[in-house]
């Protein structure tokens, strides 16, 4: 279990998150929702050591963890919104680099890379540098890099952005697989209906605070409410004939 206790996070002296306490369980998908600027990416960056939190504690399997604990941090796979790829390296080079940095055996590297390349239809672009790829292909590469090594915790920051329908369907199936393998999965999105059926727990960020629920009925109702049609659009845009 990943257990956040009273995390306080500021950027340039501006309080972004205040007293964040929440739990994410193995074998479950935790859906992280909130408006633009609510602090979802900030929270992910804090959990992966890209941003220091001012105070608070993070426990994993009942043990207090430090972001200086390299072994712990290496068990987290973070899929960044922009893909998190390296502009001057090709798809294949980046996948090889990720495997080697995370200690994958040489005898396994080729098989792993071929599988994720096939899974996300990257074959025709495997020798393209990231700077030559569309945003959709950079996103697919970012997800492939996260999956080419085994992790305990998977953090997905807006993973459906820029993905085509085929890759979106594949990612939903991958999340189902990660759940069956007992992984901790935290996923942020502005299109929660895509992943509603897989969701076990909800974290909702608003006004620097977090609300948490594991009540499936309440989660479904909440998602339906935020996904519903906004009233009055016709009147608000009445000049559009």
Structure explained in plain terms:
This protein is an alpha/beta fold. The protein has a domain at 86-150. It contains eight helices and ten strands. It has helices spanning 40-47, 70-73, 91-101, 106-119, 135-147, 165-180, 216-227, 233-236; strands at 2-11, 14-24, 28-34, 55-60, 63-65, 76-79, 153-157, 184-188, 199-206, 209-213. α3 (91-101) crosses α4 and α4 packs antiparallel against α5 (135-147).
Task: Describe this structure in a few short sentences.
The protein is an alpha/beta fold. The chain is 34% helix and 27% strand.
What key attributes describe this structure?
globular; single chain; four-stranded antiparallel β-sheet; 8 helices; 241 residues
Q: Helical region count? A: 8
Element order, helices and strands?
Answer: EEEHEEHEHHHEHEEEHH
Q: Class by helix and strand content? A: alpha/beta
Distance, first to last CA:
53 Å
Q: What portion of the residues fall into strands of 2 or more residues?
A: 25-35%
**Stretches with pLDDT under 50, minimum 5 residues:** none
Largest sheet: 6 strands, mixed
* Average of per-residue pLDDT values: 93
Largest sheet, spatial ordering of strands? 6-7-8-3-9-10
Helix content: 25-40%
Cα gyration radius (Å): 19 Å
User: Shape from CA axes?
Assistant: globular
Question: How many strands?
Answer: 10
Secondary structure blueprint with pairings:
Blueprint (H helix, E strand, L loop, with lengths): L1 E10 L2 E11 L3 E7 L5 H8 L7 E6 L2 E3 L4 H4 L2 E4 L11 H11 L4 H14 L15 H13 L5 E5 L7 H16 L3 E5 L10 E8 L2 E5 L2 H12 L5 H4 L5
Parallel strand pairs: 3-8, 3-9, 6-7, 7-8
Antiparallel strand pairs: 1-2, 1-4, 4-5, 9-10
Helix pairs in contact: 3-4, 4-5
């Amino acid at each position: 279990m990943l257990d956040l206790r009273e995390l306080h996070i500021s950027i340039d002296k501006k309080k972004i998150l205040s007293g964040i306490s929440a739990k994410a369980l193995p074998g479950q998908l935790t859906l992280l929702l909130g408006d633009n600027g609510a602090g979802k990416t900030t929270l992910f960056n804090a959990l992966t050591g890209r941003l220091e939190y001012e105070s608070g504690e993070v426990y994993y399997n009942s043990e207090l963890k430090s972001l200086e604990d390299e072994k712990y941090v290496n068990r987290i796979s973070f899929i960044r919104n922009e893909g998190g790829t390296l502009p001057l390296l090709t798809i294949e080079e980046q996948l090889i680099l990720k495997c080697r940095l995370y200690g994958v055996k040489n005898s396994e590297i080729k098989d792993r890379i071929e599988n994720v390349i096939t899974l996300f239809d990257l074959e025709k672009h495997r020798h393209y540098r990231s700077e030559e790829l569309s945003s959709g292909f950079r996103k697919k590469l970012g997800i492939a890099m996260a999956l080419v090594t085994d992790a305990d915790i998977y953090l997905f920051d807006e993973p459906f952005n820029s993905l085509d329908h085929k890759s979106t369907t594949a990612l939903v199936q991958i999340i189902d697989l990660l759940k069956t393998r007992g992984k901790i999965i935290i996923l942020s999105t502005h299109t929660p209906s895509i992943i509603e059926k897989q969701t076990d727990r909800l974290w909702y960020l608003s006004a620097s605070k977090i609300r948490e629920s594991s009540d499936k009925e309440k989660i479904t109702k909440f998602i339906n409410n935020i996904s519903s049609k906004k009233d009055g659009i016709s009147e608000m845009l009445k000049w559009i004939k």
